[in-house]
């Protein structure tokens, strides 16, 4: 069989293939030249030597499993279900994400009637009153992350509580920015639900893994393994 160095295509949610999981970390996405421009093409590139990746594009890659550069509401819905969210948060999350970010990421004056998102314009979805860990072009700023983390967490700075998170959200609020206030709050509450820490503290590495989306693939993999194990045990019974 002829072999290539290209990563395999990531299949749909209902055909989630664990073998494809590691390739999300070597698949490269294209950073826009500046924050006012779209990323070239669909926002995806296989050439890891020439193109630099955007962590914000990686963040949404989990939901664009066919890698066509377009995220439909159904893509988000199935992705949230793969992450283990119940129907309530899945529906609320899908509606919130696509109703608020479709127009700005679609790039046309008339809104998209299907409320889809374009990956090559996903940096346009960066809103005010956030932590500023993402730059205007969607890249991860490690210095800003460390600065934010050490400002709001207690020693030894390995975890963050819900109270510390809400204090951080309040500290980042910009004046006269109700849309940003809503988005900032909405982003952190589902993360606590997703991680569901037993001690009420989110680990630093888990939070950091949200920014490049690697946390999503890890949790989806764990959920799939549990389903497979349950199916095997069911057959034995």
UniProtKB/TrEMBL annotation:
The chain crosses the membrane at residues 87-106, 178-195. GO terms for molecular function: calcium ion binding; monooxygenase activity. Keywords: Membrane, Transmembrane, Transmembrane helix. It comes from the Eukaryota. InterPro entries: Caleosin-related, EF_hand_dom. Residues 51-86 form the EF-hand domain. Belongs to the caleosin family. This is EF-hand domain-containing protein. It comes from Leucocoprinus leucothites.
């Amino acid at each position: 069989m002829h072999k290539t160095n290209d990563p395999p295509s990531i299949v749909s949610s209902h055909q989630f293939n664990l073998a494809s999981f590691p390739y999300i970390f070597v698949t490269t996405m294209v950073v826009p030249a500046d924050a006012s421009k779209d990323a070239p093409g669909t926002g995806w590139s296989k050439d890891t030597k020439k193109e630099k990746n955007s962590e914000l594009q990686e963040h949404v890659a989990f939901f664009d499993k066919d890698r066509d550069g377009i995220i439909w509401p159904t893509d988000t819905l199935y992705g949230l279900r793969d992450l283990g969210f119940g129907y309530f948060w899945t529906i609320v999350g899908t509606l919130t994400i696509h109703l608020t970010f479709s127009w700005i990421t679609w790039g046309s004056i008339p809104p998209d009637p299907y409320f889809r998102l374009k990956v090559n314009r996903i940096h346009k979805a960066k809103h005010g009153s956030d932590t500023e860990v993402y730059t205007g072009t969607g890249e991860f700023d490690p210095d800003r992350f460390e600065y934010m983390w050490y400002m709001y967490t207690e020693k030894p700075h390995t975890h963050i509580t819900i109270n510390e998170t809400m204090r951080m959200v309040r500290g980042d609020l910009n004046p006269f920015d109700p849309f940003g206030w809503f988005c900032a709050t909405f982003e952190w509450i589902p993360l606590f639900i997703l991680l569901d820490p037993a001690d009420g503290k989110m680990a630093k590495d888990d939070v950091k893994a949200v920014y490049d989306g690697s946390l999503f693939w890890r949790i989806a993999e764990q959920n799939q393994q549990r389903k497979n194990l349950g199916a095997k045990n069911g057959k034995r019974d």
